[in-house]
Amino acid sequence: MEPPNSSVGGRSDLCFGVFNASSNRQDSITSPWFSTTFGLIGLCSNLFALCVVLSSSRKLSSQARSSFLVFLCGLVVTDFMGLLVTASVIIPYHFIKFTWAEVDPGCHLCNFLGFSMVFFGQCPLLLGATMASERFFGINHPFSRSTSISKRRAWSIVGLVWGFSCLLGLLPVLGLGRYTLQYPGSWCFLTLLPDTGNVVFCLLFALPGIFSVLLSFIFNTVSVVTLCRVYHDRESVQRRRDSEVEMMVQLVGIMIIATICWMPLLIFIVQTVLQQLPASGQIQMLPTETQKMLLIYIRMVTWNQILDPWVYILCRRAVLQRVYPSLRPRASILSLYPVLNPSLGRKFTSESVLQ
Q: What is the mean pLDDT of residues 151-169?
């Protein structure tokens, strides 16, 4: 049996060597207490949010609100599992200080962690865009049957998002790009080197994420403008739609958090791989500043999983009514379309408005 060092030496191109581990020193940005403290806070927050979402779903009669909570539940579960899986590898490293090359000479653990980072990173962005599009069509086309989504169909859409993200995360395992150990040696992620495979994989990860955030912004902006028109109508006092307000406040909160936490990393990835293209694969190791900036942006992304659940917890109708007491359940069929004939309006129930 070959010693670990010789075995790793022949495989250094797999997932090691992107940064100089031998010169690694303890910086404030590599403190283990960040991963430990905020990992535990994030897990507890998402678990609490999951209980809130499940409790709310049992009290609903509105199909639209029910499907919205399915997406919320999928998002909470994704954030919770993402923190649980990544923290179970990263936190032990900080306290044990094991050597990756000896513990994982075949890069299997590194590939698994890299896949988890990509999968659990892409899912929330895609789910956020899905929720925004569902609310956009539900608010602007409330009487169209195509906008009505059942619970089963909503879970199917969540499954499709998970499936796409899983396929994307498996691309390095299938030969496109590779996962490599990142500074300070506690985690693995996609490789920001200028060879063709890594550039394509980085763009496949970053561009859909950027597109999802932009799509969420467009859909949410239009939906908010539509609701604002209703609220500024002279008869708006009689036509409050607190359910739509609750969902839109939550969606806008999710969008703002995703934009602040994710866009710097996604833009940084695109800029880094495109600026290095003239090197034609000659760069074999990331510059120190690039390594540290990548770590800082990943730390910002962690805040997305920590803050997301508090959007669901704090932006519920009961909490919003305490902040803004005039929000009361006075839904009407004419809330979005007051010009409709009253006789036509009576054919619809108040539940159909909340699609």
A: 93
